[in-house]
Each structure stands twice: as structure tokens, then as C-alpha cells.
Amino acid sequence: MISNSNLFIIGNFNFRFRHLLIIGILAISFSISFMIRSQPADYGFELNEFDPFFNYRATQFIVENGIVEYFNWHDDMSWHPEGRDISSNSQVVLHITAASLYQIFGGNSTLYDFTIIFPVVFGSLTAIVLFALVRVIAGTTAGLFACLFYSVSVPVMLRGQIGWFKSEPLGLFFGLLAVYLLLSAISSRNSKISFAKLIGGGIFFALGVSAWGGIQFFVLPLGLFFLALPFLRKDHDFIRWTIPVFIISFLLTGLAFERPGINFVCGLIGFIIVGPTIFLFAYTTIQKLTREGKRLRNGLYIPIGIILSAIALISINCSSTFLRLPSFRYLNAANPFLTTQDPLVDSVAEHATTTLAQSFWFLSILMIFAGIGIWFILKNKDQIPSFSKLRNDMIVFTLIICLAGVYISSAFIRLELFASISVIILSSIGLSVLTSMILINKKIKDKKISNNPRIITRISYFSLIIILLVMPLTIPENGNWVNAIKAPPTILNGGSVFNIATDDWHSAMEWLNKNTPEDAVIASWWDYGYWITTLGERITLADNATVSTLKIQKIAKTLLSPPDEAWEMLQEQDADYFLIFVAGQRIGNDPNELYVLRGGGDESKKQWFMRIAEEPLGKYLHQDGVSGTDLFWQNTLFGKMIPFSVLTYVNLNTNAQSENFQLGFSEVFVKDIKFPNDSDGPLRLVYSSPSFDRTDNGPIIGIFIYEINQDYKPKIEN
């Protein structure tokens, strides 16, 4: 067969055609992933979203000052006046890795450009890591399908596109690499090679957790797998030392960083993986020391006793909390019903609960192949010749990690990438087995499974598979998997609903940098803190690190307070300027310049301000939960800061108008600056971004910066 023909020999290694085919498919997968992830660059070569700007700033600090200074860095530019201890609550490994690679491979590029490309490279390289992982589980064919599926996976690429210098791309790369090294080690027959892989796997697992806290997801499936492993493998002497070596390597590396650090090791999540390791070691040791006649009885008593002890330990911990609990976000991921208990967590778009429609769109045709994969896994292996080499421990691991991935993704849409990885693994297994059954002629118990399938059968099969896989990439025209990745970087549209690219935010940050004192303190909603600190180089009250819920709540209360009371609160917070962001559209040909606001700026977040401030929504919003009441527009600082006033209400379907609010009607605004530059009120508008002055119809990305009048005398009734 051509797949076995030799091409050339290097030493003792015969380079065959199939090796060339594997390299070719891996190169194609990397290239496809790289090209799809790079689409947002069509709008502008920028960092994307909010967190990447802080990560860039932290990486820049390492490049300019060194790693030692980084670990001693207390940032006075954020969370004024307390500041922030960077190394204890940041993605340290992300910053160190990027800074180190930039110093090696950066060449003549700027650090900013390097960090823009960074996530695309690591995100695309993860396709190769996933190939290696699935290859260990189910063979080379399954691994090749997995890397191809990964290269077009929407949930994965949405969180690893160009400019996405956040934690997911590097964290997922390290996490999957660690799992691959672990599974490869326990599948190896060479103890020295296994030992090296286990040490490396533990190190990469700790690096992954430090790079992205979401990698703690792997703790759950690995813990369950360790519990099951003694019942799946007979080589107890081997697994008795391999698993502890992996865990010890992981824990020691983790202790080297403040995050995850000692709190992780001594906490509940650490117990979830350390506990099963202790169980595995104890169970295999006791079984070895027990006489053969009593092994069956002990095989039942030991796990039951340990499981009951673990349940009792966790139950006691619920009241005494001697094992540290993870933060609310991680508890929320394990229990999706906690979402609405914290409005700040609930307000973040990426923390929204995944809907069934979103899951179907994200996974699409892969769900069919995943179902086939599950059917093959649960079916008697003797009936499937091409599947008979898959070991029981790999089958159980696959089921555990896939079920855990699907479950955990139900909490946050951000975690949908774990469901995607799970479905990719199952799909690749299902499709590889199906392909083998079509192409390979085997015998089982003297019965032929296939009788040399005809060429037409093979052509029909591959044509059908290609059609099914290409469909979500091309249909519908404006909503397929490829187009879903193409959106402007957030800094260019402000995170609004408009698919446009403007310089409004860059202009605003440049003005802030050149026209305000270097020690000026800027108040804003926490979303924009990283932009203000990194691009504007000014001090902020709060940013995307959400270090203090109370401080964010205070900003929300300030926005909803009457202007004079809000001025007093801003004095207490030592603020010099207040920045807001309003997104809307200029509509119609009316000389009054009519506007509709609901474009994803602060005007669309006011209901979250109210929930976080613990204010009743009905006090400030009409029945539709969006339109502001007279109290909101006339007696809150935020309502006064929005440079528009309601002119009328319009039913956009019928064009009917009303002077008063009615359900089904939307607010139509006119420009109205309540705190002009020459105002003697509590605030003065000193800057408005360029699109606010546009004379034609279209989107407005309005950034408005108010100077706080330090000489203002509030009139607050006692």
C-alpha cells in the first residue's frame, strides 16, 4: 500500500508516506486555525477586548524591569488609592511566557504587535497538542480528525483570535499538553520515559492553572479518572508511583507561584485531585499486601469506606470551611444555579448561561459524530475491529472528560470551549472508527465485516462527510462558523453592537493622556479601567480585575445618586474626572438630529448599575426594563451625564409616536448637554469623541469625559 511505502531513512527511522500525510494535515490544521483567527485584523491590528491591555502592560513591565521587580510590583495606577498587588492576582505565567518569548523571537517588532499575534500562534499550536492527546486515546486517524475539527471550532477560536492576549489560549495549550503527557506516560512501557513525561506533565499543568484559572476544570476529570484507574488497570505497581509523581510535580510547581499557590493546594479544588491520588495509592498498596482470597472483599470495603469518608469530610467542610473554597466564579461553574446570586458576576457577558440554541450552533454537525462516537464506545468492542485496540482506561477517561466538559460549559458561555473540546474528542473517535469500517476489510470470528467496499461506496462516504463538515463553515452566509470570528476588535467599536471600526476610543485615550495631570484619578464603569490605565496612562478607581466588589458597587451608587450627592461621593473617592461611554445611532433627516440609544454602551448597562447598587429597577426604569423614567433622566448623575434627552417615544414597527412611555415604544433622543464646559455645576464636559459630531446618519461611539468641579458647593438638604 502507498501509505506504507518508504520515502527516505534517517538513522533507524523510516520516513513513510503516512508520516508525510500526518505532517501535511497538521500543517493544514494550523494554517486554517491561524487564518480564521486572524480575520479581525481586517478592521485594524489591535489588541482585542479589555483584559489584553492589562496583560500587555504587565508584560511590558517585565521586559523593561525584569521578573524580580515584577514579583515586587504594587500597581498604584489601579484601584485608587489602595492599588493592586499584581503577582498575587494576575495570570503570572502568561506575562512571563510572553515577555520571555518576545525577548527571544521579538526581533524588530514592537511588544504591542507581538502580543497581538501571540494568542493566534498558541491557539493554532494547540491543534497539534490535541492531535497528540487524541492519538494516545484512540489512534492517529482520530487525532487527525480532532486537530481538523479544533481548527474550525467557534467557541475555541472566539477566545483565541488575533489580539486576544488573554489567559485562554496559553492556558488551554498548557492544560491539554499536561493531560497528553500524563496519558502518554501511563501508556508507555518505558519507566524512564514515563517519569520524564510525568514530571513535565505536572509542570505544564501548574503553568496552565497559573496562566488561566479555567484550567482547574481538568482537576475534576483527572480526579475521577484516578479513582477509577485501580479498577481499570492490573499493573498496580506501575500506577502506584506514576500518578503520585505527576501530582507531586504539579503541586510543587504550583507552590512556586502565588497563583494558584498554597490556597489551591490546601483548598477544596486541591483536595479533589489530591484525595483520589491518596485513594489510588492506598487502595493499590492494601491490595498488594492483602492475601489473594481477601482481595475481592477489600476491593469493595476500601473504596466504599474512603468515599464515605470523603463525603463526610466535604459535609463538615460546608460548616467549618477548613478546606478553602474557591471564588464565587469557580463555585458558579460547578453549580450554574448560583449565577443570579451575584449581580456583578451575572453582569459580565461572558458569564451568561449557555442557551440550548447557542450550544447547537457552536457544536452543529459535530454533535452527530459525537453521538456515533458514544455509540461505538458503549458497544461491544469485539464487534468493531478497528476499535478493539482502545484500552478500557482510555475509554473511561474519554467518557469522564467529555461528560465533565459538557456539564461545566452549562454555567458560562465562556466555558463552552470545554464542551467543544469534549465533542471534538468524541466526534474524532466516532468518525475514525466509521472511516476504518468503510475502508478496511477485517474478519471477526470467521465472519467478514465488509467485503472489500466498492470505490463508489468510498467516494459516496467521503463526499457525504465533506459536505456535512463544510456546511457549518459556509451556511448561512452571514452567520457561519468562519464569519462568526470576524468582528472588530473591541477598542474599535467600544464593545457596542455595531460592526464598525472607529478611532473614538483611541482619540479619547490620547486626549486623556495629553490634557490631564499625570496624577489625575479617573472614575468610570469598571469595564474601561484597563484602557484608561494602559492607553491613557491615568489612575483609575476600578478596572476589569474586579478586585473589590464594594468599590464597583460604590461607583454604581454614585452614578444613580442625585448630582449633588454624587459630587460628594466622588470627592470621597478622590476622583478628578468621570468618563462614560454612550453608543447609539443618528437616524432620520430631521433637522433636530434624532438619535436612538441602545447600542451597547453604558446606556445599555444601567440596569446592571441598579442591580449592583442594590437599587430597585422599577424606581428608574419603565415596564420594559430598559427605558429610563423621569427620575432617572432628571435626578441621577448618570442620566444628567448622558448628553441626550428624550424627545418622544416611537413604535419602530408602526412609526406611531407618543409623548409618554408605552410598552412596545422606544425612546427617541435629541442632543442635550446638561453639564457644558462653562457650567458652574458639579461636572463640566471637557471632551466628546469625534463620532458625537457626525452629520450623517449612522452609529455613534461616544466617549464623554467630564471634569469634576472641585470648587462646586453642593446643595444637599439635611
Question: What do these coordinates show?
Answer:
This protein has 718 residues and is an alpha+beta fold. Among the domains are: 168-328, no CATH class; 491-708, Rossmann fold. It has 31 helices and 15 strands. Strands 7, 8, 9, 10, 14 and 15 form a six-stranded mixed sheet that branches. Strands 12-11-13 form a three-stranded antiparallel sheet, with no helix packed on it. Strands 1-2 form a two-stranded antiparallel ribbon. Helix 11 (236-255) packs antiparallel against helix 13 and helix 18 (366-378) packs across helix 20. The longest helix has 28 residues, at 111-138. It is globular, with a radius of gyration of 29 Å. Mean pLDDT is 86; it is low at 442-451.
Topology:
Elements: E1 6-10, E2 13-16, H1 17-37, H2 51-65, H3 67-71, E3 74-75, E4 84-85, H4 92-105, H5 111-138, H6 140-150, H7 154-158, H8 167-187, H9 191-211, H10 219-232, H11 236-255, H12 261-265, H13 268-289, H14 295-320, H15 328-334, H16 343-347, H17 356-363, H18 366-378, H19 392-408, H20 416-439, E5 443-444, E6 447-448, H21 455-474, H22 481-484, H23 490-493, H24 504-515, E7 521-523, H25 529-534, E8 539-540, H26 549-560, H27 563-572, E9 577-587, E10 594-597, H28 606-612, H29 617-620, H30 630-635, H31 637-641, E11 644-650, E12 657-658, E13 666-671, E14 683-688, E15 698-708
Parallel strand pairs: 7-8, 7-9
Antiparallel strand pairs: 1-2, 3-4, 5-6, 9-10, 9-15, 11-12, 11-13, 14-15
Helix pairs in contact: 1-5, 1-6, 2-4, 4-9, 5-6, 5-8, 6-20, 8-9, 9-11, 10-13, 10-19, 11-13, 13-14, 18-20, 19-20, 26-27
